[in-house]
């Protein structure tokens, strides 16, 4: 870099200062920033094996084992069909918690977020990128599960059921990203992955994502009623008529309520962090 | 130069800023002014409040008491963000993105960014454009942060300890870039605890200690605020004895040498030579910014005690 700028590389500050009245983002530029932020967020996570393996590979390996291999030995298609829905929930939950929750905590800790906040980047672009990355990864897992289910496990659903199931599963990104946001707002960088794991695996199990919930003792079934993944899974199972029979509005109400609680918890965390951030970094 | 700049309003300013982190007083009634076209060195020991002052000017900290203004706007205003660049002390950006990807993303934030190829050249990153950030050396990472700070072609640049962790060679290359930016009409605010850096780059220096501005001026003025000359020699005369000699402000032993800071170098040298016939290796030099800084911060401490 020595002297390159000095030798006529110097950008003329004067020339570009004229065009600076346009601090307001045009819709086209805003769209460009949102798109680029989302693209690089996706690429960044994709290149991280610590993320890609557990969140992408686990649900598919589980399905291969419990859905395809075990399912092939049974007479009924109940198991491959049931776990299609629940592993789908699992597959959407992972990217939301790891990519959003742990990723956000990490970027707050390293200072990336602080740096970006000094730029004209709209805050919405950052959140949008994280939600989109979680959505795309979730969609990849769901698509792969559907392919395995239809072609390897022999699951047969009506066309509307495939679409409805996909829609319900992907909508889970909303409550789960809100949960990730809450974790990211409170957990510190390195401990965030541990916190996410402490939420991710027990919640997956207690919500009946691995084994149907009616196989659990009553106490555990009661706990499940408090978990967003349980209600989300019940909605997914409703599409294939394998749910526990609770009303849809109840599941929706719990999910909506918990989403609001997660957002409020996240907002509190950010406000607290504001007054602590400098003491932390200094 | 002083006369020319006084009647133009400052590009950025902090006035009567007091800032606390809980019970800790970080800034204590601080005034700071950034003038158009200058390189302002904000100097002070670690924990003096430099980063807090910068964070207020960046809008990443909310003003508690006093007022902060950049280009006549609040520091966090959109009008400010598009015209300002910053290199912060952060531990890193995404390790999995390449240098070019990081630059492309930051360029997108600004209405009139510098072309990517030029940014890569300015930061000396042409050969590293496709490398992932996580695979870079510490010095290379600093250069990426420098390129990101410049991405929007800023009028005002904040560099918070930009050469921390750089080797001597990389440091001098960054210095020459900062000088070139100044020549192109940009304004730079540079925080550092490296006195050579302020001496080499800054038009004006503000010294902060314990959250207060304890000195302000050109590096030469700051230096002249101290006793003046540093007398150095090998002698059997002890520092305690030297302290009572003509004009001596401070005397100490460094290695084999006696070092005495004095306002009357000629008289001191005469006296030293008279008292020690065997005195050797005598040098008299202008006190550096480091001596000035030590003297200033020592006064600050005594004042506070």
Structure overview:
- The complex is a heterodimer of chains A (282) and B (305).
- Chain A is mainly α.
- Chain A has one domain.
- Helix content of chain A is 79%, strand content 0%.
- Chain A is built from 13 helices and no strands.
- In chain A, α4 packs antiparallel against α5, α9 packs parallel to α13 and α12 runs antiparallel to α13.
- The longest helix of chain A is centred in the last third of the chain and has 34 residues.
- The two termini of chain A are 30 Å apart.
- In chain A, 41% of the residues are buried.
- Chain B is 35% helix and 28% strand.
- The N terminus and C terminus of chain B are likely disordered.
- In chain B, the strands form three sheets. In chain B, strands 5-6-7-3-8-9 form a six-stranded mixed beta sheet, sandwiched between helices.
- Chain B folds into two domains: 222 residues, 3-Layer(aba) Sandwich (Rossmann fold), CATH 3.40.50.300; 61 residues, Alpha-Beta Plaits (2-Layer Sandwich), CATH 3.30.70.
- Chain B starts with a helix and ends with a helix.
- With 305 residues, chain B is of the alpha/beta class.
- The interface between A and B is large, with 49 and 62 residues.
Topology:
The complex is a heterodimer of chains A (282) and B (305).
Chain A: H1 5-9, H2 13-17, H3 27-46, H4 49-73, H5 78-110, H6 112-118, H7 123-152, H8 159-171, H9 173-186, H10 189-206, H11 218-224, H12 228-239, H13 248-281
Chain B: H1 2-6, E1 12-21, E2 24-34, E3 39-43, H2 50-58, E4 65-70, H3 78-81, E5 84-87, H4 99-108, H5 116-122, H6 138-150, E6 156-160, H7 168-183, E7 187-192, H8 195-201, E8 204-209, E9 212-217, H9 219-224, E10 229-234, H10 239-242, E11 248-254, E12 257-262, H11 265-275, E13 280-286, H12 289-304
Q: What structural class is derived from the secondary structure elements of chain B? A: alpha/beta
What is the ordering of alpha helices and beta strands of chain A? HHHHHHHHHHHHH
Largest interface: A-B, 49 and 62 residues
Query: Percentage of helical residues of chain B?
Result: 25-40%
Quote the beta fraction of chain A.
under 5%
How many extended strands of chain B? 13
Average residue pLDDT of chain A:
85
Secondary-structure content class of chain A: mainly alpha
Characterize the overall form of chain A: globular
* Biggest sheet details of chain B: 6 strands, mixed
Sequence of secondary-structure elements of chain B = HEEEHEHEHHHEHEHEEHEHEEHEH
Helix content of chain A: over 70%
Number of discrete helical segments of chain B: 12
């Amino acid at each position: 870099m020595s002297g390159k700028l000095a030798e006529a590389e110097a950008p003329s500050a004067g020339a570009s200062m004229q065009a600076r009245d346009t601090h307001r983002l045009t819709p086209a530029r805003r769209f460009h920033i949102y798109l680029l932020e989302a693209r690089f967020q996706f690429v960044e996570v994709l290149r991280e094996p610590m993320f890609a393996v557990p969140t992408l590979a686990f649900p598919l390996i589980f399905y291969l084992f419990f859905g395809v291999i075990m399912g092939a030995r049974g007479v009924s298609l109940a198991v491959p069909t049931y776990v299609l829905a629940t592993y789908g929930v699992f597959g959407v939950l992972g990217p939301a918690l790891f990519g959003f929750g742990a990723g956000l905590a990490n970027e707050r800790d390293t200072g990336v977020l602080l740096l970006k906040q000094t730029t004209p980047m709209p805050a919405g672009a950052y959140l949008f990128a994280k939600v989109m990355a979680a959505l795309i990864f979730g969609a990849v897992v769901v698509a792969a599960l559907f392919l395995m289910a239809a072609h390897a496990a022999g699951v047969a659903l009506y066309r509307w059921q495939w679409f409805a199931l996909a829609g319900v599963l992907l909508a889970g990104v909303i409550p789960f990203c809100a949960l990730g946001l809450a974790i990211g707002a409170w957990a510190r960088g390195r401990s965030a992955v541990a916190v996410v794991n402490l939420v991710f695996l027990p919640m997956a199990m207690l919500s009946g994502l691995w084994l149907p919930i009616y196989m659990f003792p009553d106490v555990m079934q009661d706990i499940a009623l408090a978990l967003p993944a349980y209600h989300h899974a019940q909605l997914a199972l409703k599409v294939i008529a394998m749910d526990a029979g609770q009303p849809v509005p109840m599941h929706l109400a719990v999910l909506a309520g918990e989403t609001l609680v997660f957002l409020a918890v996240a907002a509190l965390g950010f406000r607290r962090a504001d007054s602590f951030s400098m003491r932390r970094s200094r | 130069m002083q006369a020319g700049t006084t009647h133009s309003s400052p590009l950025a300013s902090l006035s009567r800023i007091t800032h606390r982190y809980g019970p800790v007083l970080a800034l204590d009634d601080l005034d700071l002014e950034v003038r158009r076209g200058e390189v302002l060195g904000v100097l002070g020991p670690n924990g003096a409040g430099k980063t807090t002052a910068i964070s207020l000017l960046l809008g990443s900290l909310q003003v508690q008491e006093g007022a902060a203004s950049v280009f006549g706007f609040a520091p966090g205003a959109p009008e400010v963000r598009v015209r300002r660049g910053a290199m912060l002390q952060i531990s890193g950006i995404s390790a999995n993105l390449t240098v070019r990807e990081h630059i492309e993303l930051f360029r997108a934030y600004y209405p009139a960014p510098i072309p990517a190829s030029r940014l890569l050249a300015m930061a000396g990153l042409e050969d590293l454009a496709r490398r992932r950030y996580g695979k870079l050396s510490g010095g290379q990472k600093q250069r990426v942060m420098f390129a990101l700070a410049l991405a929007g072609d800023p009028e005002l640049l904040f560099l918070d300890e930009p050469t921390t962790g750089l080797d001597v060679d990389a440091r001098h290359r960054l210095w020459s870039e900062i000088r070139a930016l100044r020549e192109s009409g940009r304004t730079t605010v540079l925080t550092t605890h490296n006195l050579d850096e302020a001496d080499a780059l800054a038009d004006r220096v503000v010294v902060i200690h314990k959250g207060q501005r304890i000195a302000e001026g050109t590096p030469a003025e700051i230096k002249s605020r101290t006793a003046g000359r540093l007398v150095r020699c090998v002698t059997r005369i002890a520092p305690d004895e030297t302290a009572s000699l003509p004009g001596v402000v401070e005397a100490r032993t460094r290695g084999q040498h006696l070092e005495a800071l004095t306002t009357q170098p000629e008289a001191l040298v005469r006296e030293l030579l008279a008292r020690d016939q065997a005195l050797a290796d005598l040098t008299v030099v202008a006190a550096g910014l480091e001596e000035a800084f030590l003297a200033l911060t020592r006064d600050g401490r005594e004042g506070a005690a």
